[in-house]
Amino acid sequence: xxxxxxxxxxxxxGCGVLAxxxxxxxxxxxxxxxxxxxxxxxxxxxxxxxxxxxxxGRLRAPRIHxxxxxxxEALDLIARRFCETIAAHGPDSVAFYVSGxxxxxxxxxxxxxxxxxxxxxxxxxxxxxxxxxxxxGHRRAFGSDTVPGLYEDLELADTVVLxxxxxxxxxxxxxxxxxxxxxxxxxxxxxxxxxxxxxxxxADLHLQIAPGSDAALFNLLxxxxxxxxxxxxxxxxxxxxxxxxxxATSPAVTGLAHSQLRQFFDLWMHSxxxxxxxxxxxxxxxxGTDKVNAILNCHLASGRIGRPGMGPFSVTGQPNAMGxxxxxxLANMLACHLEIGNPDHREAVRTFWNAPRMAQRPGLKAVDMxxxxxxxxxxxxxxxxxxxxxxxxxxDRVARAIAGCDFVVVSxxxxxxxxxxxxxxxxxxxxxxxxxxxxxxxxxRISRQRRVLTPPGQARDDWRILAEVGRRMGWGASxxxxxxxxxxxxxxxxxxxxxxxGSDFDISAHAGISVAQYDALEPFLWPQSATKxxxxxxxxxxxxxxxxxxxxxxxxxxxPQPVSEAYPFRLNTxxxxxxxxxxxxxxxxxxxxxxxxxxxxxxxxxxAAQLGLQPxxxxxxxxxxxxxxxxxxxxxxxxxxxxxxxxxWTGETAPTGRVDALVPGATDPVSxxxxxxxxxxxxxxxxxxxxxxxxxxxxxxxxCDYWARAILPNGVQAELAGxxxxxxxxxxxxxxFGLEDEPLVVHDRARGQVRLAFLRDGRLQxxxxxxxxxxxLSRSHITALLCEGGAEVLAGRPGADRPDEGALVCACFGIGxxxxxxxxxxxxxxxxxxxxxxxRAGTNCGSCRPEIRALLDAGVACREAAQ
Length: 867
What we know:
By secondary structure, the protein is of the alpha/beta class.
């Protein structure tokens, strides 16, 4: 089969992928050595893409009120209902909520339809949740949403500062590039994070600052830059005001010792080339824009910007968050980095589009959009390629708002999501590997995603669906594209108009692109025009502000919202290593679920002791907005009073694990980005009277107070718990598995244990293990027996002839903790590299290297204690 060069659909690194269909619907995946973003590397999520390419759970045909319908009926209904709503209530009564997983061509068509033809700017994107503060900070400082540098700057820098960025887990390929640079040229790494994350494994300095004090820290750095007379003499706007605010900042706010601050200042000052990388730990705050500008101020004032190996660098969380920014996907922007509030920009776009009803003002940002849905001001809503009933703050409130909306359309690849259940019209969309288009990564590099597989059923590309609705609403001539290359060419031509108005975004060199040229398009950095070809911005000291000068912003740090007696803990949220967003794709890979198979609450030991919570117990986390039940992980990686929980689980995978139900809807006043990283909560033990672990070769229908489901190679597994045991465990198991067979049952009443196994032709079909406390057994052994083993499953642990891998550590090669511990002890391994040579663990994406190092440290401690 032919190998296709395409681009990964996960984070904003934008890795090149070589995808080879196997002819049976499957896919072999490897990194593309020729792609400049990753040079052949892939993280474990990218390497597992082939495992997620099947059609399990896919929506295959349009549905209207739950019944299958044809495309004509569904599209006619959407066009009619939107037209009727606009006629009755005006264009602002409708809204689109779209996604950073859309391709640029999809984004462009959606924005043209809404802003130029419907006449409203009520189109926003889930990228509002991850990078809007970076956009706002860039625009305040540079006059444009411009990322100045390139990935290679990480390899050219003397010092790299990572602030609010767990690069090892969230952008593993960039992390590996940084690790290689550190080993090759001694690059120093500073990690600024309240948590000790996997990224700290390579840190020369870890500053465990008080949560929310990032702006204060960089204000102190700016004051130190001024004190040491290292302020760049070039003319900058507002420099004296920014310096005055910086000098007024108290060091005590950061929670750091004077010696730590001094070490940070010295590392920065003694490094000519400094790159500061930030991500959601900075952006997802109700003062995120100020935090961004505090970082930018330091680079502007010291002149460390726009040259090789130096500059501020925002790394995005989604594959096409940058493309969405470029195409005007945000409610307060127009395409090609033009501004909706600028009359000249609006008129230029209106003329280019020949738009009949151009939006005249910014639309509603994400949080405000769904409040307008709740209040009935938005009466028709189209959600495309995202899951707001899980991902927005106050997620339960958002779900209720969507449920109460007059008319809801949802375009998605999956038949069942938390948002899809509220759809009046459900539309089957193509997913990664099934569609053609472009994406832009965090360094402004535009790459092609290419079709590799045949879409299931009647699935269609999002841009085609949107264009067809535009035609049915009466604007056929303006939505008549037949190929995504034509959409891209129109967009490129518009960028030339924007460049004439002073925009930084210009890809007009591709305005005449043909279908053949588009098919063969190589990755390229923008700008690309007749006179500009990629590269860094601002090295010449010229910015996109009216004066042409960089603009510093006076930042007065704001403390986070306080905790209270009722809600004394400040919950921090984030990602895990092997999953992404709401697991629509990663949840289909068995090996990606083996590392962390259920949602958890990471608690400091003193907090756990105070609350009476043991490791592996369940904790109930509550506040005024919602609640969650999470598995307890006790760790000193978090600070006392500041627990951590991941945000990936949904109503489809763990209904009580939806942590964004706990997050209040506070937003940054400049960017509109919600403070998703922080929620004041109460924690108490979950009063479970029974715990369970179940495996099944078929589907599983849990009906209990707590459950978390994960996919296996031959079926599914689930962790279970309940406040009240069922009257009959056999009946409960039959309902859980949908089986009528008679199980084998072992009931130990003295220990409160029940074990049931359903066999067919001597092979295990399903099993349920119940105990009065968290179930202790070898899960890897049990799951390996599914569809193969028999009655021996009831023992719960392997015999001497069956090795037990234990919990997965290296997902790339399927290496479990027991194998690593055994190799460390038997071969007396003393380094991560030695473990890699012995087992291959840690030699691919490297995300597991910190865990391997922890196992090595534990082994050394054990040997020393024994001597």
